[in-house]
TrEMBL record:
This is EmrB/QacA subfamily drug resistance transporter. Residues 24-472 form the Major facilitator superfamily (MFS) profile domain. InterPro entries: EmrB-like, MFS, MFS_dom, MFS_trans_sf. Pfam families: MFS_1 (PF07690). It is a multi-pass membrane protein. Its main location: membrane. GO terms for molecular function: transmembrane transporter activity. It is found in: Cell membrane. It comes from Granulicella mallensis. The chain crosses the membrane at residues 23-42, 62-82, 94-113, 119-137, 149-172, 178-196, 208-228, 240-258, 279-302, 314-331, 343-361, 414-431, 443-464. SUPFAM superfamilies: MFS general substrate transporter.
Length: 485
């Protein structure tokens, strides 16, 4: 079944022209790039910002965590907002909020103000990803969705690789405030593109917002994210952290019970009864627990363990971006030949073994071997992310797209945060305080962490075993065009 090019409510921007349809993936990709880059480019500037604001570097973790918390809380209402106010207005507001928040962050002179502005940024970022994805799903037929999603997924892979290099160059040659000001011209150009080309989809009959569900789920996810951010620090006692963890789980369990009562819950958990949706969302979550910490571990290995500079470290990660862009050319054929089940099971195992190979990188490893491993990892990561992201919509009806997009984006954001936390915990477990400044001890600890994460990734293949042959054909262009292939 193809996704229709319209929804029920009339709108002057309901039927995009062919020119707008060609530009729409670029517009959404730029928004994704801006949001993804912001989450990584700031890490490089933490020492410079903490020095400028006269706070301890550890205090800067609140600046990083506040953005993640804001995303986790506001993503679940993005689908309802798009249905209620229209994709065009919500997407434009998201870019506007993100751009305004970036400007305010850039002129902040106090860490508390900076944290508040990061929350504002997160409000915009929370709407950009799911509403942009929702607009694509409603604009393009399912047979075209794989090609479109593979294009839009590239910025999310490229931005984390460019972030460390861009951050180092900006801090070294300009000023840390330009990290935030960089978003201003991109945001303004995005607003103009939205005005000219973004279609306006909305629903005719809007159900009421689940306020109780928002409080339970939002508070539970925010609290759980906060606990993971501070886990391993000494700011709170183990008893206090355990209490917060239990409270967050109680809130999330409370939402699970509450979601069975209202006619229109915040997140429609009944969608998990659909096999392809359940496998793609849960598989994405567990897979990212293993591979989500790689952007954190590799710079640590290269810089602290092997002694590379930040720019050299970034250049060693760059082949991942080249591979990610190259993979999109062969991705439809791979999915057509092997099917979603075959690709996701085999590809997840390959990713796990690539993580195990990262544990072999040492001081005597030739640079060409590191580059080859990075290229291979980038290619298979690109295939994994795009396959999981498109499979979400394989058996989703038009009426369910908003909820499906919100759930997928929420779980993805949670898994990214949890993946970094898992990598940090694994590394801290294998690196005692006595060897943290010892490169050899650091290399050994990171190697052990890669072994753990590689094993976790391989184990996550069990989720995709529930898929059946033929699942995902609706979003595979090759299968649509050649049913017997």
């Amino acid at each position: 079944m193809n996704v229709p090019d319209s929804v029920a409510a009339p709108s002057p921007f309901l039927h995009p022209s062919e020119a707008s349809k060609r530009l729409l993936p670029w517009l959404v990709a730029v928004a994704f790039f801006m949001e993804s880059l912001d989450t990584t480019i700031l890490n490089t500037a933490v020492p410079a910002i903490s020095s400028a604001l006269k706070v301890a570097p550890l205090s800067m973790k609140a600046v990083l965590a506040s953005y993640t918390l804001s995303l986790a809380v506001f993503i679940p209402i993005s689908g309802w907002m798009a249905d209620r106010f229209g994709t065009r207005r919500v997407f434009a507001s998201a870019i506007g909020l993100f751009t305004l928040g970036s400007f305010l962050c850039g002129i902040s002179t106090d860490i508390h103000v900076l944290v508040a502005c990061r929350v504002l940024q997160g409000c915009g970022g929370a709407m950009m990803v799911p509403v942009g994805r929702l607009t694509l799903v409603r604009t393009f037929a399912k047979s075209d969705l794989l090609r479109t999603m593979s294009f839009v997924a590239i910025p999310a892979l490229v931005a984390p690789m460019l972030g460390p290099i861009a951050g180092g160059l900006i801090v070294g040659y300009l000023h840390w405030r330009f990290i935030f000001f960089l978003n201003l011209p991109i945001g303004l150009a995005g607003l103009l593109m939205v005005y000219l080309h973004l279609p306006d989809y909305r629903e005719k009959n809007i159900h009421p917002l689940d306020i109780v569900g928002l409080i339970l789920f939002g508070a539970g996810v925010a609290l759980l994210s906060y606990v993971l951010e501070i886990f391993g620090e000494h700011a709170l006692s183990s008893r206090e952290i355990s209490g917060l963890l239990v409270l967050s789980l109680v809130l999330l369990a409370g939402y699970g019970l509450h979601a069975k009562s209202p006619a229109y819950p915040l997140l429609e958990l009944s969608l998990f009864r659909i096999r392809t949706f359940r496998a793609s969302v849960s598989g994405s979550f567990f897979t990212r627990l293993g591979i989500g910490g790689v952007p954190f571990l590799l710079p640590l290995l290269y810089q602290v363990g092997l002694g590379f500079t930040p720019i050299q470290s970034g250049l060693l990660i760059m082949p991942q971006a080249v591979a990610a862009m190259s993979m999109k050319l062969v991705m439809p054929r791979l999915l057509s030949f092997f099917g979603y089940r075959g690709v996701l099971i085999s590809n997840t195992v390959i990713l796990g073994f690539l993580l195990l190979l990262f544990a072999t990188i040492g001081v005597h490893t030739p640079v060409w071997v590191i580059v080859l491993q990075a290229f291979s990892y980038g290619a298979f990561t690109s295939l994994q992310y795009t396959s999981m992201n498109t499979l979400v919509y394989a058996d989703i009806t038009e009426e369910e797209t908003s909820n499906a997009s919100s759930i997928a984006s929420t779980m993805q954001q949670m898994s990214i945060s949890f993946g970094v936390a898992a990598a940090g915990l694994a590394t801290a477990f294998f690196i005692p305080d006595s060897v943290r400044s010892n490169p050899a001890g650091m290399i050994h600890g990171i190697h052990e962490a890669f072994l753990v994460l590689g094993g976790l990734t391989i184990a996550s293949t069990i989720v995709f075993r529930s898929l059946k042959r033929g699942d995902g054909d609706a979003v595979n262009q090759q299968k649509i065009l050649h049913p017997g292939g």
